[in-house]
What we know:
By secondary structure, the protein is an alpha+beta fold. The chain is built from 28 helices and 34 strands. Helix 5 packs parallel to helix 8 (170-186), helix 8 (170-186) packs parallel to helix 10 and helix 21 (437-459) packs antiparallel against helix 22. It is globular.
Amino acid sequence: MIAKHARLWSVLVLIALPILVNAPLLTNAVKGDFALLYGGFATRVEHGALPGYPLIDPTIGFGNQTIGHRVAAEIAHGRMPWWNPYEGAGFPMGESIGNAAFFPFTLLLGLPRGQALDVTALEIAAGLGTMLVIRRLGLGWLPAVVGGALFELNAAFCWIAGDIANTAPFLPWLIYGIERVRAAAVAERPLAWGWVAGALALSLYAGFPESAYLNGLLALGWAVVRFAQLPLDQRGLFARGLFAGGAVGMLLATPILLAFYDDLRISFAGAHLSGAFAQAVLPRGAEPMLLLPYVWGPIFVYAPVYDVWSNVGGFIGTAPAVLALAALFGRRERAIRWLLAGWTIVGICASFGMPLLHAAFVHVPLVSLTAFYRYLPQSWGFSLALLCAFALAEALVLERAALAKRYALALALVLAALGAVLYHNRALVAQMRPAAGEWLFGSLEFALAVLLALAVAAQLANARARAGLLIGALLVEAVAYFGLPMLSYPRGGTLDLAAIGFLQRNLGFQRFYTLGPIQPNYGSLYGIASINHIDLPVPNAWLDFIHTRLDPFADPINFTGSAPPPGPGVPSRAAALRAHVGGFEAAGVKYVVAPAGENPFIRGYETVVGKGAGTPTNVTRGVSVVATVGGKGIPDVPLRSVGVLQGNYGNSADGTLRVQVCNARRQCATGSRSLRESADNAYFNVPLAQPLRLGARPVTIAFSSSSDKPEALWAYPAAPGASDTLAVGGKPVPNAALRIRLVYATNEVLPRRVYEDGVMTIYELAHPRPYAEAPGCTLEIRSHTALEANCRARSELRRLELLAPGWSARVNGTATEVAPFDRTFQRVALPAGRSTIVFSFSPPGIAYGYAAFLAGALALAGLALDALRRARTRTRPRVRSVEARVG
């Protein structure tokens, strides 16, 4: 009875904890709508108590929110989510494994506050799986609950979330399956591989093969240890059980694996197929964050550590580090303890580029194709949770003297490590002060308080009091580190749904191109087709069209329209648009979306900067930023507005940005514009009150702000030989220049402006190619895949959907070849008269994948039925004996 209640309470606690820590998102007390941060069409964004961002990866917006919602919408309408017509010229959606299109939890993304529900459900699954593993190791319910809670609060959910965290919950379930197979082998019961099959399949459907593979390496190590521990006569059953589970898991995952393979064959996958990650390691500044996650302040607040936040993937904390070290002194399951510790040590050392360990680790097959330094924290976070459970179990039974020795050494090692990493980063510490000084000292004070609590706990004679203090220190630290980014979520904001509504009403089946507002992939959220994309893999056919017809210098992964030129002499995205309007029209682009007040079709001058990363230069009340521009390309024509590449820290800046422009004759013009209309990390255009002829160079431009919140102008290394200069508060900034855009008055005939508000301006191109056309025919387009045609004679239907292997068409029920049109799109032959045309897409050979899935499902069902039969057989004798006694 006691065990039954312990099991019930353990489950309830592990369900309740994620709900409580995510309550602000679940109740909408803070806004988990990532369009407010990444969509580019938000106004009046009210940020939380802390500056910065709640997560380190914008994929939570560009991928999880947008594509995830599209997947859920397609399934809700009864369609297989293989294709997305709202991204690029159409993108394979289900084939791209990162979209997790067939992952059951993805369905939650279609619900209100679906992302909060999704991450909460994943955390619960992670906690329950970890609890079951710890119970299988023979530890008590209390250590099992604490270990589960620690893994629920791990950094994969706290800092990254989204599709990247999908795989985390299935590592403990895979380990649990291995333990079940081991138990069956010991009892000579071969059929116990179902958990292995299910966990493996879900890990692959979860959508992030990198972390699934790295998690699988730890599971493989666990299986090898268990195999070695078994007697010779039991190893065969264990191996057969694991093989059966692995084989059935792969059968269940065959559809997505086949589809992903097909996608890779026709797509650009960047560094993931080149092995470039073998040389990538975490930058300096990440070491202290292992123990003090916020030593450098909140996420993406202080510029010197931007690169750290962009690459780091997790943290340990001081309490788990101490307990994990203390756990290594125990004798029970020593091999497992050292496996977990070794995996953690090797993973962390390899991530930081430690010579020998890094070289050895990247030579493990396929590791060099993964960003392991970012995705390993899932598996070593699980390892630490289990080691902490071991330590807690022993704290309940060990004598005070023995425990004190363990913790004294562990505390000394953690304190030494803390001092070493801070000393190693002393230059960064000096650079961050005084701006982030309070975070450094606050982090140290909090960590020392936690360590003090652990030291006191180790001295307590009462085992329950000792365990209570240890658990309190662990959970207080874990909840604090997990919950702190919650304070950076927006507390309010308004999305420009009027502009979205305009596009939904008027775009039809055509597409739009954005230079900032409505960032890539957000068209998928609202059912409006944008040719922009942020994705990987990217179909090669689409990249060829982009680089030959739209923008030769476009980034293959981030075709954003708002990114600055990638190097000196490279035209801006607006300049590329002006030079390739015909290509955009050929792709079916009807509308071009630009920031409010900007006209990308008006020619202007843009400053050229040198190579190197940008640094935000804060414009504060009373301190002006003055740039001089002396480029040879500035013509003597009236200037109408000035744009500057700026960042408003997640759209939090308010007040007004003022601009004063003066020519060499000291003639000046001024302008101002509300910063509430600015988009983060994009050009902000300020119109002048009256045009100004620039004439002789140089041109002096002074920026000032009345904002009470941060506003930054991005400064870059000056181009070699350039005469541009920069000064802040009257003090020169050596070798630095702003990205400035000078827009001139013009008499050219320009695309018509059809919509404008405080966030965006929409222009209509004159001659967009129709989404579907057939010479000599009238067409009725019912959907992206169903059309009706009435042709006077034989003709062909031309459709602006990306041609990819897997497309098929039926004309009046007869299969018809889908041939290339304009090398990129599709055409099919049409007969004279009326025709019904239906297109469909599914990966080539997917029928074999479905057959394999069915075989795996039948095997799993057979296992379940056999287990049910065995359970009934075991209960029957007991029932008969009771009847006999009653008789």
